[in-house]
Amino acid sequence: MDGFSGKLFFLSCALAARSFAQDFGQTQFICTSVPKDMDLCAAATMQSSGPAEDLKTTVLQLRETVLQQKETIMNQKETIRELTAKLSRCESQSLPGPGGRRPGAKNTMGDVSRGTADTLTQLGNTLQTLKQRLENLEQYSRANSTRPANSLKDLLQNKMDDMEKQVLTRVNSVEEARPAARNHTDQRNRVESTLTTLHHRITDLEKGKDSRPSDTFQLTFPLRTNYMYAKAKKSLPEMYSFSVCLWLKSNASPGVGTPFSYAVPGQANELVLIEWGNNPMEILINDKVAKLPFLINDGKWHHLCITWTTRDGVWEAFQDGVLRGSGENLAPYHPIKPEGVLVLGQEQDTLGGGFDATQAFVGELANLNIWNRKLSGTEIYSLATCSGKPAGGGVFSWTEGSVETFGGATKWTFEPCRSLN
Full-prediction pTM beyond 0.85? Predict the structure, then answer.
């Protein structure tokens, strides 16, 4: 910087310092050089106003951004309120249902895929079935004067009529205006409880109309629900091998469902026979799976038998007395555990419960027997042709006293090899 420029720089700083000192008192200043041909006042104005203008511009931009964000937040809150209201309406119009099973979730009070009116209509259909059974008893009673008392029949008939009126009234009210889910659940519980009581009373009547053996009966599951089932009154013992045989009749599709399931504490799939969805029938032991070569959903009676031993997990599958398939490594060296619950017609997700309507058995089931040993092919053929019964090793026998029904499952007379069509 030459001498003249330096003097001009010093003078501009001095003038600026003196002017600001007079206005603001003791203040520190930072002086900058300006071109020698530039007006000092204009330079001073530029130096003092530039930062302020930048700051003002920044503040305005920030303020605009804040307003935009505030507007966005308000829109999001409104959207959340709308979604919450829609969700509340959906929840108020749906039936309560739970949780999961292989491979999906579970409900506990009916098939959630069905509407309220549809479910109650099904209960009405079940009542019609009961009425038909009662009419059959009346006809039998007229032909056999020593068979059940008219007073008891009249009492049951009156109760049946009352229940039918309640169900039909309930269906009409649901169709006109859907009630709260909780009230519907309470109503259905009362209906199902009364149905179960009626089934037991009618079964007692049917027992008295002849002197048939205690094992000549079948269980009928007419609807795919998660409240209709039967249960064995005692558990299975610990088993290192077993044979389970039964008669089945079904034309349900897809899949006949779960003829039986045995659950123990800590393992819901200790021993399960299931045909679910489009999958083939399977046997589960300790949650391990083997696919079975059964073809049974033709609406005809079939005799099924599965044998298994814990050594190497060897299994065999017989249909109508003929070996259809075999395999190994099915839960090898795992004994079937005791202290469990044997359920007929439903698959268990929890001990004695957690039923899923989509996996329920639909059809007829009879003569479920279990042995704690492997039956021979000859013994199984004798069972399928009704020419003999295995001796020894039975741990569960098919008798009316060993099975109790719930939720509308019914008992009918059945004699193997006389009801095959």
Answer: no
Distance CA 355, CA 225 (A): 9
Flag the least confident range among 98-112, 216-230, 277-291, 336-350: 98-112
- Among 45-49, 89-93, 248-252, 397-401, the minimum mean pLDDT is found in 45-49
Helix intervals (H) in 309-352: none
Cα–Cα distance, 387 to 384 (Å, whole number): 8
At how many degrees (to 10) do helices 181-208 and 150-176 cross? 160
Q: Which residue has the higher pLDDT, 421 or 159?
A: 159
Burial group, residue 265, by CB count within 10 angstroms (0-12, 13-18, 19+): exposed
**What structural domains does the chain harbor?**
3-59 (no CATH), 116-208 (no CATH), 217-413 (2.60.120.200)
**Residues with Cβ within 8 Å of residue 147, at least 6 apart in sequence:** 140, 141, 208, 209
In the three-class reduction of DSSP (H, G, I as helix; E, B as strand; rest coil), residue 36 is classed as: coil
